[in-house]
Design brief:
The protein is α/β, with parallel strands linked by helices and 819 residues long. It has five domains: 6-95, 3-Layer(aba) Sandwich (Udp-n-acetylmuramoylalanyl-d-glutamate--2,6- Diaminopimelate Ligase, Chain: A, domain 1); 107-311, Mur-like, catalytic domain (UDP-N-acetylmuramoyl-L-alanine:D-glutamate ligase); 321-454, Mur ligase, C-terminal domain (Protein-Tyrosine Phosphatase, Chain A, Alpha-Beta Complex), CATH 3.90.190.20; 464-684, Alanine racemase (TIM Barrel, Alpha-Beta Barrel); 694-818, Lyase, Ornithine Decarboxylase, Chain A, domain 1, CATH 2.40.37.10. It is built from 26 helices and 40 strands. The strands form six sheets. Strands 17, 18, 19, 20, 21, 22, 23, 32, 35, 36, 37, 38, 39 and 40 form a 14-stranded mixed sheet that branches. A nine-stranded mixed sheet has the order 9-10-8-11-12-13-14-15-16. The two termini are 22 Å apart. The structure holds pyridoxal-5'-phosphate. Pyridoxal-5'-phosphate is lined by residues 487, 489, 535, 615, 656-657, 672-676. Pyridoxal-5'-phosphate (PLP) binds at residues 487, 489, 535, 615, 656-657, 672-676. Its cofactor is pyridoxal 5'-phosphate. It holds the Pfam family Ala_racemase_N.
Length: 819
């Protein structure tokens, strides 16, 4: 809780706008932008921000969660909620920024501002680790670096802080100015600027220049000349500069980078002498971020010896929550990276979003919040856990144990992590979702290891934030009122089942669709309550379909008749979906069958037509646009006839992913979003605007040196006339790595380099020609990620991304990440 607070009346004054206050003495401590994450409603101010959705739509939800203070732009809400405080502004985002700026100006603390394309959050977290012994630091939570994230970060500053470390990220021109004003960085750090020609900028140069605006008024700028090759030194902002590079002339000139075991040993010339440090990492990105931190410590006046001592103690930063399968059918959410109230709230939201088990357990270490009495802190945590419907708390640490009585539900407490580990064999964990959340020094990784199943070395990582980003992208493309049916057939295109459905339900899609009844039943058993359409309803599954409230696609008179039979013991308007064949010629009614269908539907009130739909065969392909247009016409005309007979209007839908953007007039009442959710859309050049959602990685098991003329694998397909070096990795065609990738067709990324397969793909293993690179057993091999994309893989073996994704076998463990 910040100790510098404002009354709502003071805030109204700061914002200089119209207001209507019922109680002008309410203290505002929390700024809320998402009605789903509310900590202390009495002291919260909700900003109705508009991005993909109009924030005003969520006022009702926020009100339901007891929020009574709002910043809005639409005055009519004032009358609707007469017991609330309202500040009425012309732009809610500007209001949020104005408030943050006012707050910032109350403090004269030292601040570090960080921008760049990559590494901002890591550098920020590492500087926090490096400087925490000398300063009382306030920093951006997670990667809060946007137009909204920066104000929220700066809002946390209070009188005790002596240093602020804030990151700023922009995605278009003219965005940095406002962030610069709010952060006011005395010291600037530029991280890796990235090669990518980012969307929102004309060129890399423009991107760089825009980012550098953060340092317009900085005293000191820490940078590498390698990041700023597009501009001249004269154009570099900041009164003083500190540079680092391997090139001559840098203040910190790196002369050697030597990996030793898991570490990296760095040497450099600084103030005319040779200095050194050890980083406890060996990957390229960490080494680069480590160099930035090294330069920063020196620029801040630390001696090389002090810097070395601190750098070697850096620890790994993982920004993401991980959702994995656990022992005894548990789901485990692993978040042992930080333990403060705001990240706890984020983790609890994610826990709350999980419906697969009614029982929810939190394993929590004690937290540290500066300037806060324990009683008050643990009281707030107890409220929060209750609000998020946690059923059991396992508290670890002596402080949290002292406040055991505040938690009025099932609890257990342990002095420390070792005591928990000792007691583990006697503890019960089964069929529940468990959040493991602890401060770093409690080493909760030991606990999550006990709770999770051993992860097989081949893992499909799914980035849930990216998926939400893709959903928002399509939300911004559909017309107001158009519903979204999310296609989660075939394990959500290979990415998972209830994990994805939970996310989509939480983000309020309207419908889900699966291929078979089994898939729908599994979702129901995992607590999914959204309506679910089943596209291939087998007759044998009708009973189960009805029992689980699934909605069948009806594509023929036969299937309709047998479904009506199955309904004979029931007497309700059971929802069904009528599929029209408008040209796909797969499933669906033809024009010729419409009379019989109408008759049957008319004579029967056991079913209610929830929707009428059809499918476009080539919505993404311009060469077939005429055909698509004919399909749409045909569908509209058949649907119209049917609606006349029915006497009511079901939902109409025809557009799949590519149809959404290419055929906006065919969005009708609903769209069926499939592959776009997972990051692909053939209607978008290079999937522009979409985010990569999946990474498939495996591990190197063995490395061998082969003599000239040796061969590799079955049938001696892989030949090495000159000899060379091969690596065996733990993925084969049984995992979904197609045999067509054999003999050099497929490539994987190891230590940042692409290496080709050699010989045939085996059932569980693949051999790679790694003659050109440095590696050792245990290294990671990336089958696909953002750089080495599924699109590329699909091209290599002449298929489509759909097939690559859905082929990944169920034995490949899925791990979900959520920020
Ligand atoms: C799979 C499927 C979709 C989704 O298609 P995408 O191209 O993945 O968006 C839509 N409608 C039907 C009937 C489908 O089977």
């Amino acid at each position: 809780m910040p100790n510098h607070t404002y009354t709502i009346a003071e805030i109204a004054e700061i914002l200089h706008y119209n207001f209507k206050l019922i109680d002008n003495q309410v203290i505002i401590e929390y700024l809320v932008i998402d009605s789903r994450s509310v900590l202390v409603p009495e002291n919260s101010l909700f900003f109705a921000l508009s991005s993909h959705r109009d924030g005003h739509e969520f006022i009702k939800d926020a009100y339901g969660k007891d929020i009574r203070n709002f910043v809005i732009t639409e005055e009519r809400y004032v009358a609707e909620y007469p017991d609330c405080n309202f500040i009425i502004v012309t732009d809610a985002l500007i209001a949020l920024q104005t408030l943050a700026l006012h707050h910032r100006n109350q403090f004269n603390l030292k601040t570090i501002g960080i921008t760049g394309s990559n590494g901002k959050t890591i550098v920020k977290e590492w500087l926090y680790q490096l400087l925490a012994s000398d300063f009382n630091i306030v920093r951006s939570p997670k990667s809060y670096n946007s137009q909204i994230g920066v104000p929220l970060s700066v809002w946390q500053i209070d009188a005790e802080n002596t240093l602020g470390i804030f990151e700023a990220g922009i995605s278009a021109v003219n965005e940095m100015e406002s962030l610069e004003k709010i952060i006011q960085p005395e010291i600037g750090i530029l991280t890796n600027i990235g090669e990518a020609h980012a969307e929102g900028f004309q060129s890399k140069k423009e991107k760089l220049k825009e980012k550098l605006k953060l340092f317009e008024n900085s005293e000191l700028l820490i940078y590498s000349p390698e990041y700023i090759t597009e501009i001249s030194l004269k154009e570099l902002p900041g009164k003083k500069h500190f540079s680092w590079s391997s090139k001559q002339g840098a203040d910190l000139r790196i002369i050697a980078v030597e990996p030793i075991d898991g570490n990296c040993y760095l040497r450099a010339i600084y103030q005319d002498r040779e200095i050194e440090c050890m980083l406890p990492f060996k990957d390229k990105a960490s080494i680069e971020n480590g160099m930035i931190c090294w330069a920063t410590l020196l620029a801040l006046g630390y001696t090389p010896e002090q810097a070395d001592l601190r750098l070697e103690k850096l620890s790994h930063v993982s920004m993401r929550l991980e959702l994995k399968n656990g022992i005894n059918q548990c789901s485990v959410i692993d978040d042992s990276y930080s333990a403060d109230i705001s990240s706890l709230a984020i983790a609890l939201d994610f826990l709350n979003q999980q419906n697969q088990h009614p029982k929810k357990t939190v394993i929590l270490s004690e937290l540290f919040e500066t300037g806060r009495a324990d009683e008050d802190l643990y009281g707030e945590i107890a409220d929060l856990l209750k609000q998020k419907k946690v059923s059991r708390l396992i508290g670890i640490g002596s402080h949290i144990t002292k406040f055991a009585k505040l938690f009025k539900f099932e609890t257990q407490f342990f002095e420390d992590t070792s005591a928990f580990v000792d007691a583990f064999p006697g503890l019960q964990f089964s069929h529940e979702t468990i959040l493991v959340k602890g401060a770093r020094r409690f080493e909760f990784a030991r606990i999550s290891k006990l709770l999770t199943q051993k992860i097989h070395d081949t893992v499909l990582e799914i980035d849930l934030n990216a998926m939400v980003g893709n959903l928002q992208f399509y939300r911004s493309k559909i017309k107001p009122g158009v519903k979204i049916m999310a296609m989660v057939k075939a394990f959500s295109y290979g990415s998972g089942s209830f994990e994805i459905a939970n996310l989509l339900q939480f983000h309020k899609v309207d419908y889900l669709a699966v291929a078979y009844a089994d898939e729908g039943i599994a979702l129901r058993k995992a607590g999914i309550t959204l309506p679910i359409m089943v596209m291939s309803p087998e007759e044998s599954a009708f009973e189960a379909i009805i029992k689980h409230n699934l909605e069948p696609e009806i594509y023929s008179l036969e299937i309709l008749n047998s479904f009506l039979n199955a309904l004979s013991d029931y007497d309700f308007n059971y929802p069904i979906h009528i599929k029209i064949d408008s040209g796909m010629h797969r499933l669906g009614f033809d024009q010729a069958e419409m009379d019989n269908l109408s008759e049957l539907l008319n004579a029967n009130d056991k079913v209610k037509v929830q929707s009428i739909f059809s499918h476009l065969v080539a919505s993404g392909e311009a060469e077939h646009d005429d055909f698509s247009a004919r399909q749409i016409d045909k569908f509209n005309s058949i649907a119209k006839q049917l609606i006349e007979v029915l006497g009511y209007k079901p939902l109409l839908h025809i557009a799949n992913t590519s149809g959404i953007t290419r055929w906006p007039d065919a969005q009708m009442d609903m769209v069926r979003l499939g592959i776009g959710l997972y990051g692909f859309d053939s209607a978008l050049l290079n999937n522009r605007g979409l985010k990569t959602t999946m990474v498939l990685k495996t591990t190197v098991t063995q490395v061998k040196i082969l003599d000239a003329g040796e061969t590799v694998g079955y049938s001696r397909k892989g030949v090495m006339p000159m000899g060379g070096k091969i690596a065996t990795v733990k993925i084969g065609y049984a995992d979904g790595y197609n045999r067509a990738f054999g003999n050099g067709v497929g490539k994987m990324l190891i230590n940042g380099q692409l290496v080709p397969t050699i010989g045939s793909i085996c059932m569980d293993m693949t051999m790679l020609d790694v003659s050109a690179i440095d590696l050792k057993p245990g290294d990671e091999a990336i089958v696909f990620n953002q750089e080495h994309s599924i699109m590329q893989l699909a091209k290599e073996i002449n298929t489509i991304p759909y097939e690559i994704l859905t082929n990944i076998s169920q034995r490949v463990k899925r791990v979900y990440f959520y920020e």
